[in-house]
Sequence to fold (490 residues):
Amino acid sequence: MKRIIYIPFDHLHRKFGALKDADPKKDVIAFVQSARMSTGRNWHKERLFFLISSARHFAKSLEDEGFTVEYLKAATTIDGLNTISKKHKQLPIICAEPSSFRQFDALKKHGVSFVDNDFFLTPRPLFTQWAGGQKSFLMESFYRAQRVRLGILVEAGKPTGGAWNFDKENRLPPPKKYVGPKYLEHTRDEIDKEVAKELGHNPTKNWGTTRKAALAQMKNFFDNHFGEFGPLEDAMTTDNWALHHSLLSPYINNNLLHPSEVVSAAGKAFAKGDVPIESAEGFIRQLIGWREYVNGMYWFLGPDYRDNNQLKATRALLPLFSDPSKTQMNCIKATVTDINERAWVHHIPRLMLLSNLALITGTNPQAFLDWMREVFIDASEWVMVPNIIGMGVHADGGQMMTKPYAAGGAYISRMSNYCKGCSYNPKLRVGETACPFTTLYWDFLDRHKEAFAKNHRMSQTLFGLKRLSDLPELKERAQDVLKGLDKGLI
Ligand code: SF4
Fold:
């Protein structure tokens, strides 16, 4: 029977999802570039360029294989599918289960049939089974079970290298004036140029938009960066925008690369013997642990989880998030400048700078989440909702994380070289030159001390708060800092 196979822009793999048994003689392939996804929000143009150009290249590869391909621009996905259905005699439409609640509902209402979403390593029912049996949803427990279930870095039921995680080895600060190997640059073809012109955007060379480019990026990581990845994975430096991060998340999230391909390549590179266990384990944990856990939690926690605001945070998004000239904080200025340039910074600036600042300033979680969704190249709804609501700003009352990821300037100073060139001093919590992170960290703890009082993981921190002799002065300074941040002056 003939079918229309609808391919969302994050299902770009020939061997998975609805395409795995597709037949060029029978199936029509449908892509819809909806106005909602291209102009509906203030999306970063580098992100749009990557997503749209990747989809167009993928559509072209299917056409070259002999498929009838319809690539339509329409107001909504459903409008586009209606037009394609009219042209193709109302054939049944199939799709792999989409990656967000909103798209799932819209397609279901439209009568689309779903095949299982196999773009992850953990089927949704399997995750639900795991989560249903847990008292608390510790990622570490899930990750260990994944290692055993998938047989990765496990020997006779024991973890390779003698430990399940090597976090302690993977917290080195950045070396001085660290340059490192060059990152791959991607050349632009006619499809890229056409998309760039439509968007009025001059793309960087940082992101490829084809399967071939994604494979080249993966090879570059395993050849040149894998060994050093682990120890420096949390470091931040103005000398090097990516250190040894793989830069593979955009390709895995739009499925130009399937996670199993990356895990398998990591296993082979580790087996050659020249990559230390802390790098191999740290990288593999991101893929089979954290990524799978976050996707599982997104579906397990349900569509209302996004609206959580348990700390009752109401501040409007600070102007510095969209305009780096609105702050004198060197760490934030550098990070937002990097984001504006290439729609990417690694997980520590995302968590310990941006989310930390939103958390301790009491920024509304949904306003912050929407901004994070818009500016990052790899920010799918399923990945950002648990990462921000649960981990980043602790808006879920601790459903996902046992304690908030709040930190003062000391952490940032230890893990980066930002503070040296800053107008503020990370060691000071009061006074004109006090680091805003340090002041607001204590102010945040004081504002929420009742909420955290029963959390035993917070008891030492709250004990420290009680011992602050300058708390009244600090609270005054915190008010000035918050007002200054709102005005874009701090
Ligand atoms: Fe950031 Fe504070 Fe360091 Fe300045 S002193 S770079 S604001 S952490």
